[in-house]
Design goal:
The protein is mainly α and about 325 residues long. The chain is built from 14 helices and no strands. The chain has one domain. Keywords: Membrane, Transmembrane, Transmembrane helix.
């Protein structure tokens, strides 16, 4: 009897094992051959840009920074995703339609030998139009890090995300109807007002450091440029409106870093680093159309920090606490 029951049970056991095996194979197949979403198209394009930077003979970005950036962007493309990404790249020149920077970013082919500033520009474009907050923040952090690296090579270069008068006027015209009532109140988030406060604190510290500085060389030029960039960003309508929020962000009267008397550069760099952390954190909390000035803050603060502390390594991801990069 027992032997008969055992014999009858075996087909069921075999059937269950077969179903489990099919399920495992199906899951594995989907993980390997899953289709290419818009999110993955942008993410994998960003990975390709980072890979090109790491392999370019013209760029000297530390290998550990490249590895950190690739890790932050998630896993590499599966075979099917790579095929789809290549198809998009082949089709992009033939397409005459404007599908938005996000879609184009996933389709444009990444040059095999790219310059660092061009790579940073591509990455900022992806970050500015990315809908996913975390991915947008990662892309922006990588782009700002590269901009800081290129600034050390040529301090005379201007910020990539620097908003010109034409762009600012166009954005002001678009935002004017929304800056009343509830729409204006919705911009008064803790994240954005905190960035506004840190902007003012950074400017306060930079002016104090400039007053104490006795170096008439590169440090003076760096402090002047940093103050000009902070003032320019503060005067942007998108930022100026935040100082009208209730409760109002603090302005002036800040406690200065304790090292400002003996090391004005270090004190200014410390506040620039804190500002970049606030900007990176806030960039993932806003819609793409609100993101441009935050990317400007992130890039400008990362550039200032790189010039003020030239012996320190540039963080692989701008806006991350320095401890994570050491």
């Amino acid at each position: 009897m027992a032997a008969a029951r055992t014999a009858r049970a075996w087909p069921w056991v075999i059937a269950l094992l077969a179903i489990a095996l099919v399920a495992v194979l199906a899951i594995g197949s989907w993980a390997t051959w899953r289709p290419l979403s818009e999110y993955d198209a942008a993410r994998l394009t960003a990975r390709d840009i980072v890979t090109s930077v790491g392999e370019s003979p013209r760029i000297e970005v530390p290998l550990e920074s490249v590895d950190r950036q690739l890790s932050a962007l998630g896993p590499a493309a599966s075979p099917a995703q790579r095929d789809r990404l290549d198809e998009f790249s082949d089709q992009a020149p033939e397409s005459g339609t404007d599908q938005g920077s996000s879609a184009r970013g996933g389709q444009d082919e990444v040059p095999g030998d790219i310059e660092l500033r061009a790579a940073a520009t591509r990455m900022f474009d992806l970050a500015q139009d990315q809908d996913d907050p975390q991915l947008a923040t990662t892309m922006a952090a990588i782009a700002a890090s590269w901009s800081a690296e290129s600034t050390r090579e040529d301090p005379a270069t201007q910020p990539i995300m620097r908003t010109g008068e034409d762009e600012a006027a166009a954005r002001d015209a678009r935002s004017e109807p929304a800056e009343t009532g509830t729409a204006a109140d919705e911009r008064c988030t803790p994240e954005l007002t905190a960035v506004a406060t840190q902007l003012d604190r950074s400017l306060f510290t930079a002016r104090s450091a400039d007053a104490r500085n006795t170096d008439s060389g590169e440090l003076e030029k760096t402090l002047d440029e940093w103050q000009q960039n902070l003032q320019r960003i503060q005067e942007d309508t998108a930022v100026a409106g935040l100082y009208e929020c209730e409760p109002r962000p603090a302005r002036g009267g800040y406690q200065l870093p304790s090292v400002i008397a003996e090391d004005p550069a270090a004190a200014t760099a410390a506040t620039a680093q804190e500002l970049s952390e606030y900007a990176a954190g806030a960039s993932g909390t806003v819609a793409p159309e609100e993101r441009a000035w935050l990317l400007d803050v992130l890039e400008s603060s990362s550039r200032a920090q790189a010039l003020l502390q030239p012996s320190d390594p540039v963080p692989a991801l701008a806006g991350e606490p320095l401890m994570s990069d050491r």
